[in-house]
Amino acid sequence: MTNSTPDTKSTIDTAAISTQLDKLAQTPEQFRKINTFMKRRTHMSQYCEQALLDARYHGIYVNATGKLGVLGDVSQINDLRALFADSANGSAAPLTLEIGFGMGDSLLEMAKNAPEQNFVGIEVHEPGIGRITFLADELGLDNLKIINGDAIALLDNLPNDHLDTVQLYFPDPWQKKRHYKRRFVTHDRMAKVARTLKNGGKFHSATDWEHYAFWMLEVLDSMSEFHNPNGKGNFADRPDYRPLTKFEQRGITHGHGVWDLIYLKN
Ligand SMILES: C[S@@+](CC[C@H](N)C(=O)[O-])C[C@H]1O[C@@H](n2cnc3c(N)ncnc32)[C@H](O)[C@@H]1O
């Protein structure tokens, strides 16, 4: 098994994870439909606020609400490729959707490092949305678009076989058992990701929470829509194109390991 953690034996009970996932699958659908995020209120700098409110940023921040404290409406967004129709890359370039980019530094870095590819980031955290929008504008990036809203609602609107890559870096770990249903990686939610990925498309996640790492392996290895190029039960080596994220740095500071997972759509 490869990962970037120190060489220690895992204490995770994978049989218990399997039981918890079975229990979740048997929970009535209305109780499984629950947000994977919790809106956090944090300080916002003036330039972030400006990027959230000023119409001059609408080329990057595509569903600006014009107000603060409002969850973005994604109901009209049903084609992410069309967002790049007038850009240098055009709409046919490889397209990555990043779910939950946080403060956005790693997504910004990826978009800067791969100018021939298109990137869309979706978040609910306004300081991050404002920050990445402002910085993408400063850098003159035209291969990056930002959406405010719930990624699940967005995925439901997108066509089949639309995306080349979906990335989910350091998703909220929802550590308590009663919160496991909020984890982004569940069979239901990952079926939505699989539907929108092209055949051969990639799902890439990373976490610093060991239980969630093994939980993700259990979910993804059991789905017929995906295969694990590293072999069932194996994590991936951290690819060099994935920059360090803010939450990853925080985890490392607390002595956590880091686990990458890569799956390809069948
Ligand atoms: C733990 S943070 C990680 C942020 C960033 N990826 C990093 O590594 O620094 C997880 C982020 O996912 C966002 N998030 C969770 N569920 C989401 C959803 N359904 N749609 C959009 N964003 C979501 C949260 O708002 C939060 O900012």
TrEMBL record:
Keyword field: Methyltransferase, S-adenosyl-L-methionine, Transferase, tRNA processing
Annotated binding of substrate, by residue: K176, D208, T245, K246, F247, E248
Pathway this chain belongs to: tRNA modification; N(7)-methylguanine-tRNA biosynthesis
Pfam families registered for this protein in UniProt: Methyltransf_4 (PF02390)
Functional note: Catalyzes the formation of N(7)-methylguanine at position 46 (m7G46) in tRNA.
NCBIfam families: tRNA (guanosine(46)-N7)-methyltransferase TrmB
Matches recorded under HAMAP family: tRNA_methyltr_TrmB
Similarity annotation: Belongs to the class I-like SAM-binding methyltransferase superfamily. TrmB family.
Name of the protein in question: tRNA (guanine-N(7)-)-methyltransferase
Protein's organism: Moraxella cuniculi DSM 21768
Gene assigned in the entry: trmB
